[in-house]
């Protein structure tokens, strides 16, 4: 049996809500600015991102990893955010600040 099995992440409604908040906040971010641009950046169709926001679809693990890495987060960071209570705008700002500090140290 060599059928390819794609794992969907079982996501409760709170995690769906948190990921949706993050996606909406990213679309408002000055680097991104729209659902289409976020889709282009992540390589995930903006319809798929909208379905995640609305809880209409569970993300496949591969797509969730792709999303996390495209926005500069690890999957662990994304799931910690999703299970926590940090404001999505604060989470984005915190991550940007950490990336800027890492870049400055490397320069």
Automatic annotation (TrEMBL):
It comes from the Bacteria. Transmembrane segments: none annotated. InterPro entries: Cro/C1-type_HTH, Lambda_DNA-bd_dom_sf. SMART domains: HTH_XRE. It comes from Floridaenema aerugineum BLCC-F46. This is Helix-turn-helix domain-containing protein. Residues 36-78 form the HTH cro/C1-type domain.
